[in-house]
Design goal:
13-stranded antiparallel β-sheet, globular, alpha+beta, 289 residues
Amino acid sequence: MPQQGVQQVKGYNSILGETFECSWEHETSTTTFFGEQVSHHPPISACYIENKTCGLQIEIVFQPKVRFHGSLSGPSVQSHIEGAIFIHLVPIKEHYEVRLPHFVCRNLLFGGSYCELNDDLTITCSNGLKSTVNFRSKSKNKCTGQLVRPTHNRDEVLYKIEGVSNQKLTVHHKDKPSLLMNAASIKTTKKNVKPVAEQTEIESRRVWHAVTKSIFEKNLDQATKYKTLIEDAERVLRKQRDSRGEKWTPTHFETVKKNGKEIPLGNSTLYYRYKKFDHFHESVEKKDE
């Protein structure tokens, strides 16, 4: 959820093959996460989330495309997220495709800086239902949307949604409102991550440990120094691969193909899938065909 204000930070420019792994412990189940930087030019990240007890699988593939804009109130930065989120509810055989809205940081130099969502969030379900939520520009996360069932003549509106995405959302069914989400009441579960000393050299917190430590110490000059060392070393490795004619391939993910062709999720983002992905839901789909 977007927060008010923009902190003084240094961007993490993930290196090729960098990974991050964590888990969350719930009362009766465990959720695991694994992510890998599968491409550097363009910068594409692929992630896999799983909860075996609930039969939940989530695939995330995204490439941020950043644009800078100028205005009288100061520059702004817009990040267009190319890619998709795929949610698989295996026990009920439902599959969802989510396309994300833009993320914008405004008034970076003058006035009160803030971050907000912009454009459309779309969710399409395998049962035919579709939801679209529109975030209006410069409205500080105000949004409206609807859940529809497509028909031959027109879309049948089942529910309407309105509110502020980082505060409260209300859903209307047959003109009767009810609270859908209250951000203030959402509780988060602490993620479990291996200590840095136990991580491999390619895992995120170990790769960026010196940079993160410098940021917490508010020593941005030192953070810049360590960040430059990491990025320079990555450039050397890339030049060495190029000189040997080697093509780098992801370790934990592979592109998804249909009829022998890689599936695109945008202009320059391919569909990557975790190699240990459970293909049970795919076999269910084949039976239904």
